[in-house]
Amino acid sequence: MEIKLSFLGAAQNVTGSRYLVEANGKRILVDCGLYQEHDLKDRNWEPSTIPPGEIDAALLTHAHLDHCGLFPRLVSQGFRGKIYGTRATTEMALVVMADCAKINEEDADFKRRRHEKEGRQGPHPDVPLYTVEDVEQVPPLFQGVNFNEPISIGEGIEATFHEVGHILGAATIHLKITQGEESRTIVFSGDVGRCDMPILNDPDPIGDADYILCESTYGDRLHGPQADIPSELARVINDTYQAQGNLVIPSFAIERTQDIIFYLAQLLKAHRIPPINVYVDSPMAVKVSDIFKRHPQLFDYDTTQLMRSYRMPNLTMVRTTAQSKAINHVRGRAIIIAGAGMCTGGRIKHHLIRNLPRRQNTILFVGYQASGTLGRLILEGEKKVRILGEEVQVQANIERISGFSAHADKQELVSWLKTVSRPPRHLFITHGEPEAANAFSEYVTETLGWQNSVPKYQDSVTLQ
């Protein structure tokens, strides 16, 4: 029995997820994600270790950019195999990649003009990493799959997708490889979600596995007691409503926005908040929400019951620039959900310019704010911030609600790992910064006693 496994991304870092399995004369890629850390972005431009035309098939765990974002470049360089993913994942991945391509094109044009003005050349050509046209070549290669239904990838190679929470359609992938009388199952965790979160079912048990690749994004920490999100959200809404102000929520387009809408619907149905106009002002979030509506079979019991019994009033999905600009005239008693989640771009900046200076308004953060981002500056108490070239006074109330994280923490990851039928031959710890991955490795050794390791970028191992 011989299987080669290579770690081509998300190895001692959090983005750029990419693994290559070579077995039975086939080469199979698991995820093809974009690097997003500033110091690692050059890797996006590097030629593929294996010529793309020599890769037979690809498997996609879920639709976040750091897992799907380099597929257009792979296809433009010659990949012609099938890309297997759940139907919700393939639909959302197309939205995510198209948005990324548009940003790539805009950034390349900006850099070209700046470099011409400065009379210099950057480290890479002033062209997009990939274009909208490149993205349009990907959908014909998508092959939608159902959860829990094995699919044949090649002779003696079978893949099964299992629910893992995190975001709609996200999967853990079981890759079973048979050679003669022997078989081995490799489990790719993708990103592991948390239990008892809105909309999605809890992660499935692992079951049988000989080798496991497990993410470790939060492998060095605990999320702490989960806040009573509905009560906290009701308090913030009611306080802002009494002050006759607007509530502005910077939010990520995938899952976070839909979670907020779920909680708002619960609160409205229970009459815990007053009827209030809600605007979702994010083109990507609107498209993703449409995809959610097409896949109600993936919702958990509570969400299914809520949808059957209640239709949320006064919800406007903003689809045009004109509609977005019209929100600027709303002077009070509205909820505005807009991207981006860290206030680094998108329509949220325009809403902050208009709502930050008014004391009766509230800005509510529901996600992580990275160091140096506009969201982090506001959250840390800056009294004046620069947005789109303007100096803006921060007079609004600033609130934060924790508990929205879509990633399992170290205890939750171990609880998920314990659902394996027997201890695996080896656990590979991936998709985490070195401190988090190494801390999780030690935690696994202490709590489970399993043999494990933290692979480095481009490491390869032979699985027996």
What does this structure look like?
This protein has 464 residues and is α/β, with parallel strands linked by helices. It has helices spanning 65-68, 71-76, 87-118, 132-135, 229-242, 256-269, 283-293, 301-309, 321-327, 348-355, 374-379, 410-417, 434-447; strands spanning 3-9, 18-23, 26-30, 57-59, 82-86, 142-145, 151-154, 157-163, 171-179, 182-188, 211-215, 247-250, 277-281, 315-317, 334-338, 362-365, 384-387, 390-393, 397-400, 426-430, 452-453, 460-463. The strands form four sheets. The chain has a seven-stranded mixed beta sheet. Strands 7-8-9-10-11-20-21 form a seven-stranded mixed beta sheet, with helices on one face. A six-stranded parallel beta sheet has the order 14-13-15-12-16-19. The termini are close together.
